[in-house]
Amino acid sequence: MWQMKQLIIILGLIIFTILSSHFFKKISYQDKIIKKLDSIVNELRLKCLNCDKKRDVLSSVSRLAKSPIDLFNDSVVIYNRVPKTASTSLMGLAYDLCKQNKFHVLHINTTRNVHVMSLTDQRRFIENVTTWQDKKPALYHGHVAFLNFQRFGYTQRPIYINVIRKPLDRLVSYYYFLRYGDNFRPHAVRKRKGNTMTFDECVKQEEKDCNPENMWLQIPFFCGFHVDCWQPGNEWALVQAKQNLVEHYLLVGVTEELEDFVAVLEAIVPRFFLGATQQFREGKKSHLRKTYNKVDPIPETVQKIRSSNIWRMENEFYEFALKQFHSIRKKTLIEKNGILQDRGQKFFYEKIRPR
């Protein structure tokens, strides 16, 4: 009986020893796993000391993971056209090119042709532009003020382009357009049809249609939707318009040098404007819209208009844009056989490591 008890105790000790050994091995293995996980976690923590920047980088990498063709096909150009600046001629060119260059053209038609949108319409428009994949690549155009997508938290920024004109020339053109129309829609009835008063007579009699405040349009178009942008003579609006032109517009040309503007566009945005220069020179849309019965003002009229503060500010903005455009054109184009074309690549890569 005693021997049986001893045998049971010995067997129990052996089983206990085996189980204990297995248990301790398990603990040791789990300790190693925990230490390894700790090491990985610490490594990740070190790599994510600046997580916000990491997220931005990952977002950029995700975008760059697309092929160049995908990136081109995701492009959006916005041309917020200033009235009476030859914008119809430029858009006629875009409509001619859209099929062969495989992009969409969409006209922004606002109710009663107002130039500013409500905040809700701004949001809707931005959502359309950024998410309407079936219509990309796209060129949107319309008589609307500049809209900053970043104000609504969107990081995707469209390519903004525009054309402006000498302020007095634009005002005179619009004055006669309201009375006589143009050759684009010759049978359309304009607001001042039947009024034969010349611009000179209008200025002399200080009528409303030729008031210098009517020149206040190009500055607010670039300034944006802030209420002060549309207050004639507002100095802050002029500063903001200049800032937006430099920071948000890829290219701003002038009506007086429209062919040069087209040539620069073709060089810097070939996805949309490949073949535009030749089409402009040889096609029928380079001067698509001409105002009827337009008469240049006499020197006395010009002097009176130029004495106004509105003309001074609008002309300052025009000269600012013209200087910027000339600088870009000089660095971008070269004339060969009477044709403006891209200067070609002027940089290269070297000292690339590792080999």
UniProtKB/TrEMBL annotation:
Gene3D superfamilies (UniProt xref): P-loop containing nucleotide triphosphate hydrolases
Main subcellular location: Golgi
Pfam families from the UniProt entry: Sulfotransfer_2 (PF03567)
Domain of life: Eukaryota
Membrane topology: Single-pass type II membrane protein
InterPro entries: Heparan_SO4_2-O-STrfase (IPR007734), P-loop_NTPase (IPR027417), Sulfotransferase (IPR005331)
Subcellular location: Golgi apparatus membrane
Keywords annotated in UniProt: Disulfide bond, Glycoprotein, Golgi apparatus, Membrane, Signal-anchor, Transferase, Transmembrane, Transmembrane helix
Sequence similarity: Belongs to the sulfotransferase 3 family.
PANTHER family: HEPARAN SULFATE 2-O-SULFOTRANSFERASE, HEPARAN SULFATE 2-O-SULFOTRANSFERASE 1
Protein name: Heparan sulfate 2-O-sulfotransferase 1-like
